[in-house]
Amino acid sequence: MTGDRVVEHGADSRDGRTADNGTDAETSTGSDRGVTVTLNYILVLSITAVLVSGLLVAGGTFIEDQRERVIEDELNVIGSHIAGDVEQVDRMVRAGGGTVDRAEINQSFQRTLSGTTYNVRLEPNPDRVVLASNSPGVTVSVNVTVRTDIEASFAVGGDTSVQYDTTADRLVIVDA
Amino acid sequence: MAHLSGNGRERGQLLLVGVLVLAAMFIVLALVVNSAVFAENLATREDVPGSEEAVEYRAELVDGIGEIVVAINEDENVTSQSELENHTQNEIAMVRSRGGLSQAISGAVVEVSYRNATPGHRIAQENASRNLTDRNATEDWTLAEDVTSVRNVGFQLRDVDTGGNFSRGFEMTVSNGTTWSLSVSEEGLTGVGADGLGADEVAVTVETGTGDQAECVRDKPNATSPLTIDVTGGTVDGEPCHALNRQADTTPMWLGAGVGDPYDIEFDNGGSVNGTYSMVVENASFDASLHSTYNESEPYVMDALYDVDLSYAYQNHAVAYEDTLRVAPGEVPP
User: Fold this and answer.
1) What number is the average pLDDT over the span B320-334?
2) Are B21 and A58 in contact (CB under 8 A)?
């Protein structure tokens, strides 16, 4: 439809010099119109492709950003729970005043956070719980306040156990 | 491209693919949002069940069995160490079965068992109308020598009459070279009068080994409202008395602070006050100032339990706690 209108419009407005064109248009209608249609299609397709791919790229980035933020939130929540466990075991040890034979708290969390695995480390000086996801790599650290010394230790995210090591007089984290 | 551009009807393929991918992205976004919701839910959950109860129940046991030890020590019919220990073991078994049942209902297994006890002696006078002299009416006398620890020291005084003389105040001293003393007098450090004590008040004064002095002022006791001094608990008439638990510069302080053991415990001017008292000592020697068996009208010393050790284990699906409890009610830090 568009092609037809252009040709007609050209024939009307350009008399002498466009006679050749008009003749060409009339004699080889298919090829001349085809060029315009192809160009038109290419333009439409490329603009559509650019728009759609832009949408996909922007959407993908948005989702990836959201995923990282959600993983960070989840690590924070789990880190706070584990920090609570560490401080509770510390209270148990302090309540015993050095006579505690065993103190441990086990807690289960999800093994994957938004599709990624993670691990939990207990670090001394400053005393803190450090959680790190694998892909994407997000690291979160939660401080703990304890009187008992902390042993640098490591557990895979999921089922963790905070324990009191009676021989070393330290708090450790291990896989439950 | 040939297919996409060849025919008007097939141009939608690119859009179709784009829409499908976009739909998949929305599904992923929904999963991510779901994870966020779960994280928020996790954040509102309480700590591991039982992690607090393990410590709480431990404290309850120490308090409860402390009361049992006090009651058994005060029972005049239980006189020998073996009787004291048997009674204590029976009571602990009762606590174990009853307390264990209530804990089992909440999903925890609690095991409490008697381990051993440290023998001691209880010195007391139960005749409230008698003064605080020894059995021979000597005013200045030694209750116990070479004491390594003392706990649960309490007085209940019905009458304080120091005759207008601060130096006549009743005094309890703990000494070993240095002296820690507690005195009760109608006259305080500030004297009597405009800025000092009223006529119906008494002062409880503590002087530490370093010469630091502090006093608490309370209403003068009578037969119906005695002056109750919990020396090791740091209260007078049930209210905290700063003189009993801290120095003037707010350093924490308690009975016998600054006095190395073994020490002697003495009463001076015992004739100035009337009332009852009780204390439990460890590793002490006594002379004839006290009756060596229960006596309802004069001061006596009897076998008692100084402390009791218990094994304690608390376990549920997530918490494991094992400890040795030491029960010594009314004990001050060493």
Assistant:
1) 89
2) no
**Averaged pLDDT for residues A89-115:** 91
Side chain identity at residue A51, one-letter code: L
The answer to whether B136 and B144 are in contact (CB under 8 A) is no
Give exposure, A109-136, as e/b (b: 16+ Cβ within 10 Å): beeebbebebbbbbbeeebbbbbebeee
**Nearest-angstrom CA–CA distance, B19 and B15:** 6
Q: How far is B299 from chain A (nearest CA, A)?
A: 36
pLDDT at B212: 84
Q: Locate tokens 């010394």: which residue?
A: A149
B16 touches chain A (CB under 8 A): no
Contacts of B15 in chain A (CB under 8 A): 48, 52
SS (H, E, C) A109-128: CCCEECCEEEEEEEECCCCE
Token pair listed for B175: 């000494």
Q: Are B306 and B315 in contact (CB under 8 A)?
A: no
Asked casually if ipTM beats, i.e. exceeds, 0.85, the reply is no
- Distant-in-sequence, close-in-space partners of B206: CB < 8 Å, separation ≥ 6: B180, B181, B182, B183, B213, B214, B215, B243, B244, B253
Q: In this structure, what are the phi and psi dihedrals at residue B97, rounded to the nearest 5 degrees?
A: -70, -40
Picking from A45, A102, A106, the nearest residue to B321 by CB comes out as A102
pLDDT value of residue A31: 52
pLDDT at B163 over 50: yes
Cβ–Cβ under 8 Å, residues B263 and B269: no
Distance from CA of B44 to the nearest CA of A (A): 9
Residue B178 structure tokens: 């240095």
Contact B55 A45 (CB under 8 A): no
Question: Judging by DSSP bridges, how do beta strands B273-282 and B109-125 pair with one another?
Answer: antiparallel
Question: What is the DSSP code (8-state) at residue B166?
Answer: G
Average pLDDT over residues B308-323: 94
Strand order through the sheet with B170-176: B141-147, B263-268, B170-176, B178-185, B201-207, B213-219
Q: What is the distance between the alpha carbons of residues A99 and A166, in angstroms, rounded to a whole number?
A: 9
Collapsing DSSP states into helix, strand and coil, what is residue B108? coil
B87 three-class SS: helix
Residue B4 pLDDT:
46
